[in-house]
Amino acid sequence: MLTSQTIAFWPFLVYAIAVLILVSIMVALSWILGEHHKEKLTDEPYESGIPPTGDARLRFSSHFYLIAIFFVIFDLDAVFIMAWAISFREVGIIGYIGILIFIGILISFLIYEIGIKALDFGPQGKKILKLKNKLSK
Q: I want to staple 121 with a disulfide (CB 3.0 to 4.6 A). Which of 13, 49, 95, 125 is the partner?
């Protein structure tokens, strides 16, 4: 007894099986035809032909992470402003007042960040740059 649901489902099933077979063949051929060697530098990270020097884990000031968080916050705010700009005609004067309040809060937050020197790296940033230059030599 065939229903319309089973008739519409079989192409998906055939497609899924074909994809699984194709992926299995590609993985198997990759394993068969790929190189199998274990040399000294096989597990080392590739540094564009330059021998790796030192450890990649430098200690950075928390200011760098704070800047990244601020970037994400202001980037999301830009998304909201773009959504408002797209629907500008539909939201009317109420939407315009709302976006003005929103931008006012953003500006006050930015002024607050500048006031507490959250965006100021000062001598800490220079120390990190000197350390990075010293390690790269």
A: 125
